[in-house]
Amino acid sequence: MIFSELYSAYYNAVAEILAAAAKRPVTPDDIRRIIEEKAFGESVLNIEPSLTEERWQLLLPDGSTVIENRPEMPLTLIEKRWLKAISLDPRIRLFTDDIIDYPDVEPLFYPEDIMIFDRYSDGDDYENEEYISNFRMILDAIHNGYPLTISMESRKDIRSTQNILPKLLEYSEKEAKFRLRGLTRKGECIVNLGRITRCTKCTKEIKFEKTTLRKPAECMVSFDLIDRRNALDRVLLHFAHFKKQVEKTGEDTYKVTLYYDINDETEMVIRILSFGPLIKVTEPETFINRIKQRLIYQKSCGL
Fold first, then answer.
1. What pLDDT sits at residue 91?
2. Residue 106: what pLDDT?
3. Nearest Cα to 223, choosing from 294, 297, 275?
4. DSSP string for residues in 77-120
5. 188 and 142 in contact (C-beta within 8 Å)?
6. What whole-number distance in Å separates Cα of residue 168 and Cα of residue 190?
7. Cβ atoms within 10 A of the Cβ of 41, count?
8. I want to staple 107 with a disulfide (CB 3.0 to 4.6 A). Which of 7, 52, 85, 276 is the partner?
9. Closest to 223 in 3D by CA, of 273, 266, 174
10. Structure pTM?
């Protein structure tokens, strides 16, 4: 990745290792500890051997470094171009009016350069001023813990109003929609933000029976991966936001275990199928059957 809130962890982990090595030689245990603290579990597979085997010529064999000062990472030209490209995404305005701009650089890409498949066409209208206002109020209520009076309209044009204590926002990449998960006096609720017509701070004190959301059911899928055509890197990038374990089983083979929300199972099936023969699902049997059903359905459609 050029730049990412998640993947910059790799760079920060290496910077922390070098900062420690500038004070005293670091051991393999020191490297693993810093990687676990600053990056991800599977990062050890790449970062540690790259440093200790001097593929990245940053550490000497004794664990010291030729770098004298703590590493700094100013933005590069390509990072600025990437950030400027991201600032063109209309979802940015949901969070702030202070749009990132580097007048001396061109965006790395434009929204019209990206063509997305398998996404519903009725996603939320992120440029609607009412939607933006509702989103920001919900986000503030989540951060500060106060309830809202929310008016909404169903698909059948039925209008309703509820007092809701917002707890978190979810985003569906496949649907291109945000959902609010929160608490009412009767229990949990899920509301599509696109259905909300008005949000205001609740003016009366409300007692909620529950104070926390029920933890969603966590499912697991394991698959064998052949690292051809950079498959391992692509899988780690594609599933970066999922909890996972990666185990090397051969010269170019790995076992990958992913954990996901049961509500995302259909999307997970589609994502895994996109890697074709480089991935073979090994467990659980229910997921394997979902894969088979999907392939049979695709074949029946002439795909």
1. 93
2. 93
3. 275
4. HHHHHHHHHHHTSGGGGGT-S-----TTS--S--GGG----S--
5. no
6. 10
7. 12
8. 85
9. 273
10. 0.62
- Of the candidates 75, 54, 81, which has an alpha carbon nearest to the alpha carbon of residue 66? 54
CA 125 from chain center: how many Å?
A: 21
Please check whether residue 108 is in contact with residue 85, taking contact to mean a CB–CB distance below 8 angstroms. Answer: yes
The packing angle between helices 8-23 and 28-38, to 10°, is 140
Distance of CA 149 to the CA centre of its chain: 30
Separation of CA 270 from chain center: 17
The DSSP bridge partners found for residue 184 are 187
Q: Could you give the 3-state DSSP secondary structure of residue 289?
A: helix
> In terms of C-beta distances under 8 Å and separation of at least 24 residues, what long-range contacts does 225-233 make, across chains too?
225/253, 225/254, 225/255, 225/256, 225/275, 225/278, 225/279, 226/252, 226/253, 226/277, 226/278, 226/279, 227/252, 227/253, 227/254, 228/252, 228/278, 229/278, 231/275, 231/278, 231/279
**pLDDT tens for the chain, residues 1 to 303:** 555 555 577 888 888 999 999 889 999 899 889 988 888 777 777 888 888 888 888 888 898 898 888 777 778 888 889 889 989 999 999 999 888 788 899 999 998 888 776 666 788 999 999 999 999 999 999 999 999 999 998 888 889 899 999 999 988 877 889 999 999 888 888 899 999 999 999 888 877 777 777 777 789 999 999 998 888 988 988 888 788 999 999 988 999 999 998 877 888 898 898 898 999 999 999 999 999 988 888 777 765
Backbone conformation region of residue 276, classed left if phi is above 0, alpha if psi is from -120 to 50, else beta: left
Residue 189 CB neighbours (<10 A):
16
User: Do you find a cis peptide bond into 284, omega within 30 degrees of 0?
Assistant: yes
Contact criterion met (CB below 8 Å) for 104 and 77: no
Measured from the Cβ of residue 125, the count of other Cβ atoms closer than 10 Å reads: 12
